[in-house]
Amino acid sequence: MLVYKTLKKLHVNTQEYFDYSQAYNRHVAYTLDVDQAESFMAEYFKKFGVYSFSDEETDKFELILLNKEIVKICKKYESHRLYIYQSCVNVFHRLFVEAEDELTDESIEPIEDIFTNMEKIFNDFPMDTIYFHLRVVLEFLRLEYYNHYKLYRKAERYFDEVNDSIGSLLSSYNTHTYPARFLFTKLERHTRLNTQTELYEENQGLFHDFEPDVQNVPQYVSYVCYRALSQYFAEKYDEAIRWLNKLLNEISLKRFPYVHLEIKLLLAIQYAIVKDTELLAQLTNSIQRQIRLLGKETCIHVVIFIKILKIATQSSRSDRAGRIDQYLDKLKKTAMPNGFCLVKYLKLDEDFTRRVI
User: Could you tell me the residue ranges of all domains in the chain?
Assistant: First the structure.
């Protein structure tokens, strides 16, 4: 754009002036569209954070519209920059918003082909600083793609690189993807491998210099809950209590009542384990009031957990373990929420019973 602007001025008295003016106008229009695509992309991932907490159809519809707007802009140009931006959104959208079988456009590019083309563009422009930094986003998308389809061996190829970059990913890439998703992918991986106890020590190094953004509510809540679960696995219950109480005091979650409920339930489990019966009673009363407002049928797993915690506090009963195991069996047959749900990462076995009683 600057080149054509200069050429236009230099040829103001020649026949080439018109051609350079047209070229300048085209590049101005392109620059504005790139800027708009970047704005839509940032808005998309901001909205996805809200959708991941609310699971509302209206939020999903807004994400679909934003994705279509980005595609619409990118179709106007043969631009590798816009292709990269569109791909960052499109792949994520197909994994977490609109499943492949919901899409009606048969001309949609296969996701693995998108990865190949993104890699080629990055290699073709090695001096491009934006592409240099976006390589970790490509690795993140590959990891999530293979994890989504349970191709865990292929996912492992990308896990270490993304994991080592998690601090910068959470800090600097919120306008190009939704990095907080990786925290739950990591929890799922360690649960699958039965290595949850390793998370606590690993986090000390990974997040040594990381400062979470309190204004980014979905990411901040996800980060604190991830750390609290890691502390639970390492039996650092007092730390988990401090982190969760700090979160509830700092952030208003009235907009996300089910997320609020999940956090309070995880905190109640910590209180039960450390035998703080007074605070546990206060918190379970608060949870039960919230359940009455939301409706039992919408949070059955929380109702069952509260029954388990009440049994765990009845020290006079000799059959506590047996009764808790019965409710745990019932929990295993109960469908957990598809959206934000913390207790699904807990192992509901004799180890859990041992902890709470």
Answer: 2-125+231-356
The closest alpha carbon to 276, from 318, 244, 234, 324, belongs to: 244
More confident residue, 17 or 316: 17
Exposure string (b/e) for 42-63, b if CB count within 10 Å is 16 or more?
ebbbbbbbbbbbbbeeebbebb
Cα–Cα dist 198/235, whole Å: 12
pLDDT digits (tens, 9 = 90+) for 146-167: 999 999 999 999 999 999 999 9
Instruction: Give the tens place of pLDDT for each residue, 251-294.
Output: 999 999 999 999 999 999 999 999 999 999 999 999 999 999 99
Q: Six-digit token pair at 204? A: 């000390």
DSSP letter string over 197-219?
GGHHHHHHHHTTT----TTSHHH
Taking alpha carbons only, the member of 131, 214, 208, 145 closest to residue 176 is: 131
- CB-neighbour burial class of residue 161 (10 A; exposed 0-12, middle 13-18, buried 19+): middle
Q: Distance between CA 2 and CA 51 in Å, rounded?
A: 40
Query: Is residue 24 within 8 Å of 4, Cβ to Cβ?
Result: yes
Q: How far is CA 215 from CA 136, 250, 262, 273, in A?
A: 24, 10, 20, 32
- CA 336 → CA 79, 345, 346, distances in Å? 43, 11, 12
The rounded distance, in Å, linking the Cα atoms of 226 and 203 is 10
pLDDT of 106 over the 70 cut: no
User: Which two three-digit tokens encode residue 105?
Assistant: 């456009």
The structure's pTM equals 0.91
Distances (CA, A) of 345 to 67, 192, 196, 234, 340: 31, 10, 10, 14, 11
Task: Give residue-wise pLDDT tens across range 299-344.
Answer: 999 999 999 999 998 876 678 889 999 999 999 888 888 889 999 9
3-state secondary structure of 317: coil
170, 179 in Cβ contact below 8 A? yes
Tokens linked to 323: 């009764």
pLDDT reported for residue 8? 80
